[in-house]
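Prompt: May I have another protein with tokenized structure?
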Amino acid sequence: MLACRVASLPSKFVLFFSERRGKPRNLRDQAMLLLFLRLCLRLGEVARLWIRDIDWRTGTLTIRSTKSHRERVLPPPRDVGNALVAHLRAQHIKTEHVFQPRRPPFPEERCRAHVLNSQRYLFQVARVADHGSHALRHTLATQMVNKGVSFKAVADVLGHKSVTTTLIYAKLDLQALKQVVLPGGAR
């Protein structure tokens, strides 16, 4: 699987979630956080996730990019799927959005603000500097490359059209770059 398997729930979050087990907000936060941590999704991609984007039969998520306006299909790890199921069962979903505010109206921009506020709350709880999901994407891209995942696979997960963009995310030393760059280009 191409997803960010190297990432696991940081211990600060595990403790926080275990103390609030089963509460709807906790289930929402955990599902959201796992989408950021395990699939390297952008804030807008999480906010634009609709129920119809989840294909339970094939076990995939269709991610609609907010930047490139392209779609990519990712198989979520089991913990992400389980967290999404728990969240959706606990919520009273009134729209197609997986993550929506508690009260209407539910325009896309309001759902985005809801996800942003939830993300800020989670970072505050963990006492982590809030650099947003973008900083997580940089960190996870670097971890994936350091674990031996090809730049092409990392680019596919992140939704980059060009491997060059992924090189910017995966800040590596020159020795690591020498090992993955071949005479014909990046592998």
Q: What stands out?
A: DSSP finds nine helices and five strands in the chain.
